[in-house]
Design goal:
Blueprint (H helix, E strand, L loop, with lengths): L8 E4 L9 H14 L4 E4 L15 H12 L12 H8 L1
Length: 91
């Protein structure tokens, strides 16, 4: 049991925004694998799954992470301009 097990829903916001080290992506993968079928996880990303090979250091880890994420998932694609960009244009 980890300290995150008690939370019903965890959110990872903008998963591909900042480049991570190999050890950070390994920890991220282990976290996703641990939460798989044991707790809810909401993940946002500005990258489609086809570009997640830029997040994880190797193809097998990328495929395994995506597989665990989408197995019981509801995917909500948003194809519009970002909220921040819209507000910036109004200013």
């Amino acid at each position: 049991m980890t300290r995150f097990d008690k939370y019903r829903v965890l959110i990872i916001d903008d998963i591909g925004y900042v480049k991570k080290t190999d050890s950070e992506t390994q920890a991220l993968f282990e976290f996703i694998a641990h939460r798989y079928e044991s707790g809810s996880l909401i993940i946002t990303s500005n990258q489609p799954f086809s570009q997640w090979d830029q997040i994880f250091p190797d193809t097998m880890m990328t495929v395994a992470a995506i597989d665990r994420i989408i197995h019981h998932a509801t995917i909500i694609p948003i194809d519009s301009e970002s909220y921040r960009r819209k507000n910036q244009k109004k200013s």
